[in-house]
C-alpha cells in the first residue's frame, strides 16, 4: 500500500476516523493493529519477521535495563549482543546472504578455486533495513543508560511498527517515539495544518517531479552507450531530482500522516542540494540515517577522538557500511566509499585551513572571494560531486556503471539531452525548496496570505492532476 | 471518550478551502476555453486520443446541425475509408438530406466497437442509422487489435464494464470535469523534449488530420511501401475456417445491431473492401465468397442489411493508387468506396426503413 495511492487514502481515513473516537490506550492498540494490517498488505509472512524483531529487542531492552540496575555489566553486554546480533542476523540473512555468497564465490574464482556456495531464493522484506536499525537504537540507548525501556509490549511494538514510518523511515529514535506513544496525544490545529501541508507537498514531489524525472532518467540508464556526454549528464541530474523528491516526498507524507495522528517524526531532509560542503550535505540528506550512523557507528568506532588517521578510517568505514545499508551490491559500496572519500578530503582541507602550516601563516591569498560567491561556488561543487555519485547508486551493476562512466567522460558533445525537462523539474524543485529554506520551515506556506497560498496549492494540485498516471510508481527507498 | 485533545478550528480551514475552491473553479473555467484547450495537449480521459478527437469534432458538429442521421462505426478501415461529407453529398444529389459522422477508431475489433457504440456514440448522437464497417481480419483477434482489457481500464471506459455507484460517479467526474481530463500530460510533455527538441507525438491520432466529420485521410503509399518491401509480412487472407473462430466477433456484431435497434436506429453491416492482394491465389474468390457469406448469413439471421459494394468480386479494388496499405485506402480509394456505399445505401434507406427514410427527405 503506497502513500500515493487511493488505497492508502482510504486506509488512512478509516484509521484516522476510528482513532479520533478511541481512548488513549485503545488508540495505541488500534494503531498497532492498523500498522500490522498495513505491513501485512505487502506479504503477511513478513509480519512474523517484524514480530520476531520486536520480541528480540523488547526482551533485550528489559534484560539490559535490569542488568544495569544491578551493575551486571556482563549480562547487559550479552543481552545487547543478543539484540544487535539478532537484528543483524535477520538483516544479513534476508538482505546480504546472497551478496556475500556470490562475492565470495567470485573471489575464490579469481584465485583459481571453483566454489559453488549456496544462495537463497528469498524476497527482501519491505522496510527491514529501517525497522532493524530503529530497534537496535532502542537497545543501544538503554545500554548506554540514555533511556529506560518501556514495559508495555503494545507501546514498544507500536514504536517499531507505526505505519507512517515503518517501511522507509524516518529511522526514528525509539526514545523519542515511545515517549509520544506512552502519553495521551493532542491533535492541535498546528498538527492539522502541518499534516495536510506535508502530505500535499510530499505528493507533489513524488507525482509531479520524482516520477517524471525517473521515467526520463531510466532511458539513459537503460542503454548508456547510445548517448553522448550531455544527455548522460542530464540523466544523472534527473536521477538526482528523482531520488531527492521521491524520498523527501515520502518522508513528508510519512511525517504528515503522523502529524494528523498527533505524532511528530523527525525531519529527514533539509534541502540537501543547498549544502555548501559534503559534511553539510550529510546533515541535510536522509538525516535520520546519517545521524544514526554517526551516533551508533561512527561514535562507537571512536569518531574523531583518536587522531587524524583514525578519524578518516572511521569516516570511511561508516560511509562504506552506510552505502551497504542501502543494498547488497558493490555499487552501493562504491557510492558509500565515494562519499567517505569526499568527507575525508573535506575534513583534511578544513583542518589544514584551521591550523595552517607555519610557512603559510601571514601569507595573503591572491584571490579572496566574497562569502556569497564562495557559497555559490562551493554549493555548485558539492552538487556536482553528489550528482556524480548517483551514478553508482542508480546503475544496477558494475557493467552499466562502467558504460555510463565511459559515455560521460568521453566528452562526445551533442545537445540532444533532456535540457528542458531538467530546467523544468529544477524550477519545480526550487519552487518548493526555496520558500521552505528561506523560512526554515517545511510548511512555510501556512503563513502565507490566503490568496497566495491558494494559488500555490492550486498550481500544485494542477501538476498532481496533470501528472497522475494510471499505475503508481513505488518509492525508491521501499527496496532498501 | 478520547483522552487526547482534538483541536479543530473550522473557520481557518473553511477560509483556506474557499480560496482554493475559487482558484480551482477559475482554472476549470479556463480549461474549458477553446483557445486554451487547443494550446494544451490532447485530453487523456479516454483510452486513446482518437476518441477525444472525434468527441470534440462531434460536439462541434452537433452545435451546427440538429442531429446526426448516419453514424459510421468500426475500426481504422472505417476511420480512413469512409468520407461522411462525400457520403452526404452523394445522397443529397439523390434527394436525401443526411448528416453523417465517422466514429471509426483505430485498432478496434468488434467487441471494442460494440463497447464504444453502445456506451458512447449511440447516447451522444441518437442516429437514425448505424453503419458498421468490417474487414476479414477483424473477425479474428489479432496482434494489431487493441487489447480490450487495456481499453476497459481507462478512466471512463472502466465504468462501462463495472456496475455500481462509485464507478458511475468516477466516470461522470472524468467526463465532465476538465481538470481531471489531462492525466499524464505533464510527464508526456517532458518526455517529448527528452532528446533536446520537441519530438513528434508517438500517437498517430495526434499527428494526423481529422476532418469535421471524423474522417482521417491516409496518403497513397501502397506502391511505395510495396517497393520498399515493408509489407512483406502481410499475407493474403486465409479461408474462414483456417483463420480461427470468428464467433466472438460475430456475437459482438450481433450485440451492436441489437444496441442500435434498442436506441431506435436501423443497423447496417458493411464489408470494407481490402486490396485484391488479400484475396489473391487460386481459391481467392472462394475464400472471399465464404467470408461474405458468413456476414450475409449473420445479417439474415439477425434481420439487418449487409452491404458489399464489390458484389462478390475482390478484383473491384485492385488499384494500388487507391490504397495506403492493403486495407487502408488513399483519399481516391475512400472516395470511390464512399460513393459506391452511398449509392447502395440510397436504395437500402428506402427499403430498410421507409418511415425513417421519409424523415430524411
Q: In terms of topology, how is this protein built?
A:
The complex is a heterodimer of chains A (480) and B (361).
Chain A: H1 6-21, H2 24-40, H3 46-69, H4 73-110, H5 128-143, H6 153-161, H7 163-166, H8 174-182, H9 189-222, H10 229-260, H11 278-284, H12 287-298, H13 308-326, H14 330-354, H15 371-394, H16 398-409, H17 419-439, H18 450-467
Helix pairs in contact in A: 1-2, 2-6, 3-4, 3-5, 3-6, 4-5, 6-8, 9-10, 9-17, 9-18, 10-15, 10-16, 10-17, 12-13, 13-14, 14-15
Chain B: H1 10-31, H2 34-39, H3 49-64, E1 70-73, H4 76-81, H5 84-93, E2 100-102, H6 110-125, E3 129-134, H7 148-151, H8 157-161, H9 165-176, H10 185-192, H11 204-207, H12 222-227, H13 247-262, E4 266-271, H14 284-302, E5 306-307, H15 331-352, H16 354-360
Parallel strand pairs in B: 1-2, 1-3, 3-4, 4-5
Give a quick summary of the entry.
The complex is a heterodimer of chains A (480) and B (361). By secondary structure, chain A is mostly helical.
Proportion of residues in helical segments of chain B: 40-55%
Low-confidence stretches of chain A: none
Percent helix range of chain A: over 70%
- How much is the average pLDDT of chain A? 87
Structural class by SSE content of chain A: mainly alpha
Multimeric organization: heterodimer
Taken in chain order, the helices and strands of chain B follow as HHHEHHEHEHHHHHHHEHEHH
Largest interface chains and counts: A-B, 47 and 37 residues
Amino acid at each position: 500500500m503506497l502513500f500515493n495511492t487511493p488505497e492508502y487514502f482510504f486506509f488512512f481515513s478509516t484509521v484516522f476516523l476510528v482513532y479520533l473516537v478511541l481512548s488513549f490506550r485503545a488508540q495505541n492498540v488500534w494503531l498497532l493493529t492498523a500498522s500490522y494490517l498495513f505491513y501485512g498488505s505487502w506479504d503477511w509472512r513478513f509480519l512474523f519477521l517484524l514480530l520476531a524483531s520486536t520480541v528480540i529487542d523488547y526482551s533485550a531492552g528489559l534484560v539490559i535495563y535490569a542488568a544495569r540496575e544491578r551493575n551486571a555489566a556482563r549480562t547487559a553486554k550479552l543481552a545487547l549482543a543478543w539484540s544487535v546480533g539478532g537484528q543483524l542476523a535477520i538483516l544479513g540473512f534476508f538482505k546480504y546472504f546472497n551478496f556475500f555468497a556470490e562475492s565470495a564465490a567470485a573471489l575464490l574464482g579469481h584465485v583459481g578455486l571453483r566454489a559453488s556456495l549456496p544462495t537463497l531464493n528469498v524476497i527482501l522484506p519491505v522496510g527491514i533495513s529501517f525497522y532493524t536499525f530503529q530497534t537496535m537504537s532502542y537497545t543501544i540507548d538503554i545500554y548506554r543508560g540514555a533511556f529506560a525501556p518501556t514495559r508495555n509490549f503494545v507501546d514498544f511494538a507500536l514504536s517499531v511498527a507505526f505505519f507512517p514510518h515503518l517501511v522507509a523511515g524516518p529511522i526514528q529514535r525509539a526514545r523519542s517515539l515511545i515517549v509520544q506513544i506512552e502519553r495521551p496525544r493532542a491533535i492541535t490545529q498546528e498538527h492539522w495544518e502541518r499534516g495536510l501541508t506535508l502530505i500535499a507537498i510530499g505528493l507533489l514531489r513524488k507525482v509531479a517531479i520524482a516520477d517524471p524525472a525517473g521515467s526520463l532518467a531510466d532511458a539513459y540508464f537503460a542503454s548508456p552507450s547510445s548517448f553522448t556526454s550531455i544527455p548522460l549528464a542530464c540523466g544523472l541530474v534527473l536521477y538526482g531530482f528523482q531520488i531527492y523528491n521521491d524520498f523527501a516526498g515520502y518522508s513528508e507524507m510519512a511525517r504528515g500522516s503522523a502529524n494528523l495522528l498527533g505524532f511528530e517524526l523527525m525531519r529527514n531532509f533539509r534541502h540537501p542540494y543547498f549544502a555548501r560542503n559534503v559534511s553539510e550535505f550529510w546533515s541535510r540528506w536522509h538525516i535520520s540515517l546519517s545521524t544514526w550512523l554517526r551516533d551508533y557507528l561512527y561514535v562507537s568506532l571512536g569518531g574523531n577522538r583518536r587522531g587524524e588517521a583514525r578519524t578518516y578510517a572511521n569516516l570511511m568505514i561508516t560511509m562504506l557500511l552506510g552505502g551497504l545499508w542501502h543494498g547488497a551490491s558493490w555499487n552501493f559500496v562504491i557510492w558509500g566509499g565515494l562519499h567517505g572519500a569526499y568527507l575525508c578530503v573535506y575534513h583534511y582541507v578544513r583542518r589544514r585551513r584551521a591550523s595552517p602550516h607555519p610557512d603559510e601563516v601571514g601569507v595573503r591569498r591572491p584571490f579572496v572571494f566574497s562569502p556569497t560567491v564562495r557559497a555559490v561556488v562551493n554549493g555548485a561543487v558539492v552538487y556536482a560531486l553528489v550528482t556524480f555519485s548517483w551514478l553508482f547508486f542508480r546503475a544496477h551493476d558494475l557493467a552499466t556503471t562502467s558504460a555510463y562512466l565511459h559515455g560521460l567522460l568521453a566528452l562526445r558533445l551533442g545537445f540532444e539531452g533532456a535540457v528542458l525537462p531538467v530546467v523544468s523539474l529544477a524550477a519545480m524543485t526550487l519552487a518548493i525548496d526555496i520558500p521552505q529554506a528561506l523560512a526554515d520551515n517545511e510548511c512555510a506556506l501556512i503563513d502565507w496570505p490566503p490568496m497566495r497560498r491558494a494559488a500555490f496549492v492550486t498550481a500544485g494540485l494542477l501538476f498532481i492532476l496533470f501528472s497522475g498516471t494510471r499505475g503508481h510508481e513505488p518509492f525508491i527507498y521501499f527496496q532498501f | 471518550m478520547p483522552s487526547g485533545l482534538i483541536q479543530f478550528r473550522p473557520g481557518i480551514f473553511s477560509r483556506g478551502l474557499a480560496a482554493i475552491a475559487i482558484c480551482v473553479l477559475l482554472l476549470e473555467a479556463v480549461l474549458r476555453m477553446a483557445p486554451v484547450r487547443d494550446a494544451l495537449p490532447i485530453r487523456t480521459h479516454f483510452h486513446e486520443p482518437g476518441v477525444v478527437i472525434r468527441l470534440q469534432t462531434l460536439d462541434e458538429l452537433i452545435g451546427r446541425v440538429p442531429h446526426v442521421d448516419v453514424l459510421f462505426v468500426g475500426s481504422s478501415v472505417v476511420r480512413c475509408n469512409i468520407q461522411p461529407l462525400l457520403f452526404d453529398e452523394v445522397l443529397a444529389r439523390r434527394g436525401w438530406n443526411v448528416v453523417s459522422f465517422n466514429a471509426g477508431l483505430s485498432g478496434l475489433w468488434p467487441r471494442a466497437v460494440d463497447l464504444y457504440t453502445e456506451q458512447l456514440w449511440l447516447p451522444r448522437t441518437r442516429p437514425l442509422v448505424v453503419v458498421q464497417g468490417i474487414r476479414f481480419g477483424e473477425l479474428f483477434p489479432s496482434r494489431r487489435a487493441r487489447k480490450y482489457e487495456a481499453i476497459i481500464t481507462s478512466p471512463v471506459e472502466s465504468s462501462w464494464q463495472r456496475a455500481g455507484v462509485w464507478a458511475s460517479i468516477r466516470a461522470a467526474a472524468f467526463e465532465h470535469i476538465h481538470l481531471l481530463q489531462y492525466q499524464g500530460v505533464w510527464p508526456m510533455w517532458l518526455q517529448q523534449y527528452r532528446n533536446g527538441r520537441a519530438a513528434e507525438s508517438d500517437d498517430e491520432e495526434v499527428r494526423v488530420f481529422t476532418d469535421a466529420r471524423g474522417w482521417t485521410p491516409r496518403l497513397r503509399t501502397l506502391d511505395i511501401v510495396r517497393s520498399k518491401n515493408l509489407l512483406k509480412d502481410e499475407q493474403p487472407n486465409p479461408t474462414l475456417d483456417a483463420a480461427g473462430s470468428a464467433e466472438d466477433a460475430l456475437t459482438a456484431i450481433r450485440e451492436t445491431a441489437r444496441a442500435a435497434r434498442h436506441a431506435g436506429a436501423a443497423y447496417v453491416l458493411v464489408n470494407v473492401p481490402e486490396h485484391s492482394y488479400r484475396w489473391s491465389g487460386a481459391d481467392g474468390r472462394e475464400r472471399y465468397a465464404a467470408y461474405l457469406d458468413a456476414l450475409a448469413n449473420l445479417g439474415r439471421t439477425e434481420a439487418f442489411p449487409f452491404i458489399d459494394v464489390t458484389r462478390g468480386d475482390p478484383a473491384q479494388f485492385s488499384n494500388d493508387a487507391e490504397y495506403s496499405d492493403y486495407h487502408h485506402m488513399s483519399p481516391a480509394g475512400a472516395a470511390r468506396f464512399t460513393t459506391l456505399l452511398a449509392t447502395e445505401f440510397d436504395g437500402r434507406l428506402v427499403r430498410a426503413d421507409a418511415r425513417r427514410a421519409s424523415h430524411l427527405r
